[in-house]
Design a protein that fits this description.
By secondary structure, this protein is of the alpha+beta class. It is 14% helix and 34% strand. The chain contains two helices and ten strands. It has a four-stranded antiparallel beta sheet with strand order 4-5-6-10, with helices on one face. A three-stranded antiparallel beta sheet has the order 1-2-3, with no helix packed on it. α1 packs across α2. The longest helix has 12 residues. The radius of gyration is 25 Å and the shape is elongated. It starts with a strand and ends in a 16-residue tail after the last helix.
Protein backbone atom coordinates (compact mmCIF):
# COMPACT_ATOMS: atom_id res chain seq x y z
CA UNK A 1 0.00 0.00 0.00
CA UNK A 2 1.28 3.51 -0.81
CA UNK A 3 2.21 5.99 1.84
CA UNK A 4 -0.19 8.88 2.30
CA UNK A 5 1.23 12.43 2.31
CA UNK A 6 -0.69 15.33 3.85
CA UNK A 7 -0.31 18.76 5.43
CA UNK A 8 -0.70 19.75 9.08
CA UNK A 9 -1.16 23.38 10.06
CA UNK A 10 0.86 24.47 13.09
CA UNK A 11 0.59 27.74 15.01
CA UNK A 12 4.03 28.77 16.25
CA UNK A 13 4.41 31.45 18.97
CA UNK A 14 7.19 33.30 17.11
CA UNK A 15 6.67 32.47 13.43
CA UNK A 16 2.87 32.33 13.30
CA UNK A 17 1.14 29.93 10.92
CA UNK A 18 3.36 27.14 9.54
CA UNK A 19 2.69 23.95 7.61
CA UNK A 20 4.28 20.58 8.11
CA UNK A 21 4.35 17.89 5.41
CA UNK A 22 3.75 14.46 6.87
CA UNK A 23 3.78 10.95 5.48
CA UNK A 24 1.66 8.20 7.01
CA UNK A 25 2.67 4.58 6.61
CA UNK A 26 -0.67 2.70 6.54
CA UNK A 27 0.90 -0.59 7.61
CA UNK A 28 2.48 0.72 10.80
CA UNK A 29 0.40 3.88 11.34
CA UNK A 30 3.67 5.77 11.81
CA UNK A 31 3.83 9.48 10.92
CA UNK A 32 7.07 11.03 9.65
CA UNK A 33 8.09 14.37 8.25
CA UNK A 34 8.15 14.25 4.45
CA UNK A 35 9.65 16.29 1.66
CA UNK A 36 6.81 17.39 -0.64
CA UNK A 37 9.15 17.16 -3.63
CA UNK A 38 10.39 13.64 -2.90
CA UNK A 39 6.85 12.48 -2.09
CA UNK A 40 5.65 13.58 -5.54
CA UNK A 41 3.25 16.28 -4.33
CA UNK A 42 4.60 18.74 -6.88
CA UNK A 43 5.18 18.01 -10.53
CA UNK A 44 8.43 19.30 -11.89
CA UNK A 45 7.80 22.57 -13.65
CA UNK A 46 8.46 22.49 -17.35
CA UNK A 47 10.70 25.22 -18.58
CA UNK A 48 8.88 27.67 -20.83
CA UNK A 49 10.05 27.20 -24.40
CA UNK A 50 11.83 30.09 -26.10
CA UNK A 51 9.27 31.63 -28.43
CA UNK A 52 10.16 32.59 -31.97
CA UNK A 53 8.10 34.89 -34.18
CA UNK A 54 7.32 35.40 -37.86
CA UNK A 55 5.50 38.26 -39.55
CA UNK A 56 4.80 38.78 -43.23
CA UNK A 57 3.48 41.61 -45.39
CA UNK A 58 0.53 39.44 -46.41
CA UNK A 59 -0.71 39.04 -42.82
CA UNK A 60 1.10 36.25 -41.01
CA UNK A 61 1.77 37.08 -37.36
CA UNK A 62 2.71 33.84 -35.61
CA UNK A 63 4.64 32.62 -32.58
CA UNK A 64 6.08 29.16 -32.06
CA UNK A 65 8.83 27.10 -30.52
CA UNK A 66 11.02 24.09 -31.22
CA UNK A 67 9.92 20.82 -29.64
CA UNK A 68 12.47 18.12 -30.34
CA UNK A 69 12.63 17.65 -34.11
CA UNK A 70 9.27 19.42 -34.58
CA UNK A 71 8.10 23.03 -34.50
CA UNK A 72 4.90 24.08 -32.70
CA UNK A 73 2.91 27.15 -33.76
CA UNK A 74 1.06 28.58 -30.76
CA UNK A 75 -2.68 28.95 -30.43
CA UNK A 76 -3.73 32.54 -31.18
CA UNK A 77 -1.17 32.98 -33.96
CA UNK A 78 -2.39 34.28 -37.30
CA UNK A 79 -1.56 32.89 -40.74
CA UNK A 80 -1.78 34.88 -43.98
CA UNK A 81 -5.28 34.47 -45.43
CA UNK A 82 -4.03 33.81 -48.97
CA UNK A 83 -1.19 31.97 -50.59
CA UNK A 84 1.25 33.33 -53.13
CA UNK A 85 1.19 31.98 -56.71
CA UNK A 86 4.54 30.25 -56.08
CA UNK A 87 3.46 28.63 -52.80
CA UNK A 88 4.46 24.94 -52.82
CA UNK A 89 1.50 22.56 -52.96
CA UNK A 90 2.55 20.88 -49.71
CA UNK A 91 1.93 24.14 -47.81
CA UNK A 92 -1.38 24.72 -49.60
CA UNK A 93 -2.52 21.18 -48.71
CA UNK A 94 -1.37 21.63 -45.10
CA UNK A 95 -3.36 24.85 -44.75
CA UNK A 96 -6.45 23.29 -46.37
CA UNK A 97 -6.26 20.29 -44.04
CA UNK A 98 -5.95 22.54 -40.98
CA UNK A 99 -8.97 24.59 -42.13
CA UNK A 100 -11.07 21.44 -42.68
CA UNK A 101 -10.12 20.29 -39.16
CA UNK A 102 -11.19 23.74 -37.83
CA UNK A 103 -7.69 24.28 -36.42
CA UNK A 104 -7.41 27.35 -38.67
CA UNK A 105 -10.43 29.60 -39.10
CA UNK A 106 -10.90 32.81 -41.11
CA UNK A 107 -10.71 35.88 -38.87
CA UNK A 108 -10.32 39.53 -39.96
CA UNK A 109 -8.44 38.91 -43.23
CA UNK A 110 -6.20 36.29 -41.59
CA UNK A 111 -6.45 32.67 -40.48
CA UNK A 112 -6.56 32.27 -36.70
CA UNK A 113 -4.81 29.27 -35.10
CA UNK A 114 -7.35 27.68 -32.74
CA UNK A 115 -4.95 25.27 -30.99
CA UNK A 116 -1.22 24.58 -30.93
CA UNK A 117 -0.21 23.02 -34.26
CA UNK A 118 2.85 20.78 -34.60
CA UNK A 119 4.81 20.83 -37.86
CA UNK A 120 7.66 18.59 -39.01
CA UNK A 121 10.08 21.54 -39.15
CA UNK A 122 10.34 25.31 -38.63
CA UNK A 123 10.45 25.67 -42.42
CA UNK A 124 7.15 23.78 -42.86
CA UNK A 125 5.54 25.91 -40.15
CA UNK A 126 6.76 29.11 -41.78
CA UNK A 127 5.62 28.04 -45.26
CA UNK A 128 2.14 27.27 -43.96
CA UNK A 129 1.99 30.50 -41.93
CA UNK A 130 3.05 32.88 -44.69
CA UNK A 131 1.42 30.86 -47.47
CA UNK A 132 4.46 31.09 -49.67
CA UNK A 133 7.87 29.87 -50.68
CA UNK A 134 10.52 29.74 -47.94
CA UNK A 135 14.27 29.28 -48.18
CA UNK A 136 14.85 28.08 -44.65
CA UNK A 137 13.87 28.47 -41.04
CA UNK A 138 16.02 31.59 -40.57
CA UNK A 139 13.05 33.98 -40.70
CA UNK A 140 11.75 32.88 -37.28
CA UNK A 141 13.03 35.66 -34.98
CA UNK A 142 13.48 35.94 -31.23
CA UNK A 143 11.46 39.17 -31.01
CA UNK A 144 8.32 40.03 -32.93
CA UNK A 145 8.78 42.48 -35.80
CA UNK A 146 12.57 42.24 -36.00
Amino acid sequence: MAKEVYLRKIIHNTHGELYQFLQLDPASGEERAASPFEAGMFKELEQEPELLYIQSKRGADAAGYCKGQCFVVKQGSKFAATTSPKCPKKYVRSREKLMLEKRLIPFQNQLLVMEDIEFDSPQAAMGAAIGGWVRGAHDWKEKPGT
